[in-house]
Amino acid sequence: MALSLFTRREDAPSTQVVSPQMEAFLQGYSIEVMPRTAEKVEDFRDLLPKGTRVYVAHIEGTPIDDMVRTAARLNAEGYPVMPHFPARIIKDRATLADWIARYQGEADVRQALLLAGGVTTPHGEFDSSMQLMETGEFDKAGFTRLHVAGHPEGNKDIDPDGSRTNVDAALLWKQGYAERTDAEMAIATQFAFEAGPIIKWADDLKAAGVDLPIHIGIAGPAKLQTLIKFAIACGVGPSLKVLQKRAKDVSKLLLPFEPTEVLSELAAHKAANPDFNITNVHFFPLGGIKTNANWAIENGGAATKPASVTG
């Protein structure tokens, strides 16, 4: 779909009515990029509100040089950068320390998303994000914020039986880590498409003693076929039925899927329950970062489209 369908013209402000609940829920949202997708964006200041946290996804095979270069570019444009540190593709502690030093020295990075990584066989001595945390390298380097992965629908790589036993135990360990260190921590989750199970998962975590803030993963607007492909690849099972139901509706099949419904329901729940532990939205721009950024603007993620700045 053409970008112009998502872009607000500067000389003709959108007449779309933005829900105050949605606007409040989208404040402080974050978004994810990869080095190869970031290269296609001329200037992020044309797309994202000032201060938007940008995660840089580290996919197996991506050179660390590309990761650091992307982080440096984003930092120069005024965005706090949170690179991925996938445990299973980090060879050893020396490599971890080198990555941290490069991110700090070349891109002024002080925050990271720690995760196991989508690799079956570890490349070296690390198998989990907990092992990365136990090295003490992030604390020694003065990282002020660490995010860890959450899985509202479970993770069969970690719990093959379909339960949440191991992932929940890991989050309890990370809750303890947050309590005994100075790190600001949050849970950044895999994307899901249905509000009800997300709310139950978040409430269950809190009842179990995990009260870390949750940054809920949401797939940005994309073709239905694209979302189904990513959902299957990422193990998003239970809420896949939302997409499959839509695919049966011929009138909607060729239209882009937008996250309006799930976010509206979550925003309403947050407004009615201010202590609800989902505090932020994290976008996976599966249909393209420009499309996602413009959708966020149109739906309350920014009052006006951010303009390029210099200096």
Automatic annotation (TrEMBL):
Organism of origin: Aliishimia ponticola
Q: Sorted alphabetically, which SUPFAM superfamilies does this protein's record hold?
A: FAD-linked oxidoreductase
List GO molecular-function terms, semicolon-separated. oxidoreductase activity
Query: Is the Oxidoreductase keyword given for this protein?
Result: yes
Q: Which domain of life is it from?
A: Bacteria
Q: Does the keyword Oxidoreductase apply?
A: yes
Listed name of the protein: Methylenetetrahydrofolate reductase
Enumerate the UniProt keywords alphabetically. Oxidoreductase
